[in-house]
């Protein structure tokens, strides 16, 4: 699934594996129709953006103090699974939150994982990705 096919089929399963259809989950966040209500929802939308190659959402959802000037995505890398392991804060009433996750990917015949503890904060009232510790 890429961003074009996801937009054509909002009833398809969301890549973040929340169990919801794309159009009821990350699709509305990626389309800019609504802000992520929690840090976890933003984390899920960012995983989905990686899975679909939505570079714009990744940059827009990154805190301006830590956001890179440019972001290149590897078209050969296919993100296919997200496991949320824990959350700390990040509710609709918080201003900071952490999400620890493992994301699974394939590159050709090789498989790999990314394990990260990501920090999120509110900026101009919206949840944004601040930074993360990979490990």
Automatic annotation (TrEMBL):
Coiled-coil regions listed: none
HAMAP family per record: UPF0225
Protein family per UniProt: Belongs to the UPF0225 family.
Occurrences of domain YchJ-like middle NTF2-like (ranges): 38-132
Domain of life of the source: Bacteria
Name assigned to this protein: UPF0225 protein R3P94_23275
Listed InterPro entries: NTF2-like_dom_sf, SEC_C_motif, YchJ-like, YchJ-like_M
Organism: Gordonia amicalis
């Amino acid at each position: 699934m890429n961003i074009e096919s996801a937009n054509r089929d909002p009833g398809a399963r969301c890549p973040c594996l929340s169990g919801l259809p794309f159009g009821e989950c990350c699709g509305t966040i990626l389309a800019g129709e609504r802000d992520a209500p929690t840090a976890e929802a933003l984390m899920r939308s960012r995983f989905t953006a990686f899975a679909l190659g939505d570079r714009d959402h990744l940059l827009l959802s990154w805190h301006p103090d830590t956001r890179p000037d440019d972001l290149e995505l590897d078209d050969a890398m296919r993100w296919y699974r997200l496991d949320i392991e824990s959350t700390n804060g990040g509710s609709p009433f918080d201003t900071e939150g952490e999400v620890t996750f493992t994301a699974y990917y394939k590159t050709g015949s090789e498989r790999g994982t990314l394990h990260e503890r990501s920090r999120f904060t509110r900026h101009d009232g919206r949840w944004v990705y601040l930074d993360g510790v990979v490990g």
